[in-house]
């Protein structure tokens, strides 16, 4: 075989180098876009952000001095910031979550967001609403853009998976939640960059059994996110929730979890009433559980003092209810 000319040798060498460079880039890209899974506790060592424009904060500033002192107990405790399309539409939501995350970073704290805009939200119940199936993906993507390179916690669509079994849209809901989680995760392209720790809806100990909930969570992509949230906006005592969540975790590849302790100080009523039940109390202060297990910590996901709906004397869902807030504080 005739030997190659110096020019051909140079061309071959350049081609090989170019090919190896492309391979290296491709391998690097594969490494950095792998979604982070719940192997560590994102709450560990972190202080949580207190949102200064929460309903409780505004109420504490406007009420009489006696009420203000009581409401301040709620206002000064870190609670989740609920992101709703009715308040934060697609063209404004990225700027909103970015501004909150920046404010939290300025205080060396971590914000907790609740993303709550899935189509047919709450199945036409007290918190009915949400976006259309066509509008929802873009809204979630905008949230992901706003959270890019910010450390945060996201509770993704409370009740969405648990309630779907009653609403008859389980397959669609699972697909929507899975897609929404991927849109939030995919904005965090670099493993060493901060991004949202996402918890899916895990129901609670008085709702679906752990086996059923685990199957739904696996279909919704629990292995691609931090874990699940239990007891969101509910009242079950922490011990019952830990037992349930530990069983659910064991059935989902040891997925991590958080528990909503905002109003579970007295546990639930004997009838497990969920809409503004009387006699309830504030629960454990939000923060990490530093035991190295799947239990990441307690959060105030529901904002104490905001109504569950037009029931037991409360206003519409999500509206501030001064009497209900004072009752929670005084029972604690």
UniProtKB/TrEMBL annotation:
It holds the Pfam family Glyco_hydro_6. Belongs to the glycosyl hydrolase family 6. One of its GO terms (molecular function) is hydrolase activity, hydrolyzing O-glycosyl compounds. PANTHER family: 1,4-BETA-D-GLUCAN CELLOBIOHYDROLASE C-RELATED, PTHR34876. Its EC number is 3.2.1.-. Coiled coil: none annotated. Keywords: Carbohydrate metabolism, Cellulose degradation, Disulfide bond, Glycosidase, Hydrolase, Polysaccharide degradation, Signal. The keyword DNA-binding does not apply. This is Glucanase. It comes from Glaciihabitans tibetensis. Substrate binds at residues 82, 204, 207, 234, 274, 302, 306. GO terms for biological process: cellulose catabolic process. InterPro entries: Beta_cellobiohydrolase, Beta_cellobiohydrolase_sf, Glyco_hydro_6_CS. The active site is at residues 159, 308.
């Amino acid at each position: 075989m005739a030997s190659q000319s110096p020019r051909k040798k140079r061309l071959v060498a350049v081609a090989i180098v170019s090919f190896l460079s492309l391979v290296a880039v491709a391998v690097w890209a594969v490494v950095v876009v792998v979604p982070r899974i719940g192997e560590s506790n994102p709450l560990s060592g972190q202080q949580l952000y207190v949102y200064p424009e929460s309903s409780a904060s505004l109420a504490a500033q406007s009420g009489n001095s006696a009420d203000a002192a009581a409401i301040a107990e709620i206002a000064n405790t870190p609670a989740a910031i609920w992101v709703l399309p009715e308040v934060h539409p697609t063209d404004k939501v990225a700027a909103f979550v970015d501004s909150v995350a920046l404010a939290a970073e300025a205080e060396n704290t971590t914000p907790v967001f609740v993303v709550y805009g899935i189509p047919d939200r709450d199945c036409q119940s007290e918190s009915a609403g949400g976006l259309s199936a066509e509008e929802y993906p873009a809204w979630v993507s905008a949230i992901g853009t706003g959270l890019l390179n910010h450390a945060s916690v996201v509770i993704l669509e409370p009740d969405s998976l648990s309630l779907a079994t009653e609403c008859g849209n389980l397959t669609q809901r699972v697909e929507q939640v899975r897609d929404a989680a991927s849109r939030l995760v995919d904005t965090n392209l670099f493993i060493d960059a901060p991004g949202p720790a996402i918890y899916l809806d895990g129901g609670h100990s008085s709702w679906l059994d752990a086996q059923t909930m685990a199957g739904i969570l696996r279909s919704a992509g629990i292995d691609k996110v931090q874990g699940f949230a239990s007891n969101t906006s509910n009242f079950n005592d922490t011990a019952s929730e830990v037992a349930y969540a530990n069983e659910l975790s064991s059935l989902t590849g040891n997925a991590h979890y958080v528990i909503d302790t905002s109003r579970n100080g007295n546990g639930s009523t004997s009838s497990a009433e969920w809409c503004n039940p009387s006699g309830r109390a504030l629960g454990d202060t939000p923060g990490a559980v530093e035991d190295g297990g799947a239990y990441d910590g307690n959060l105030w996901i529901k904002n104490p003092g905001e109504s569950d709906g037009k029931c037991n004397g409360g206003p519409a869902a999500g509206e501030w209810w001064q009497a209900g807030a004072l009752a929670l504080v005084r029972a604690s």
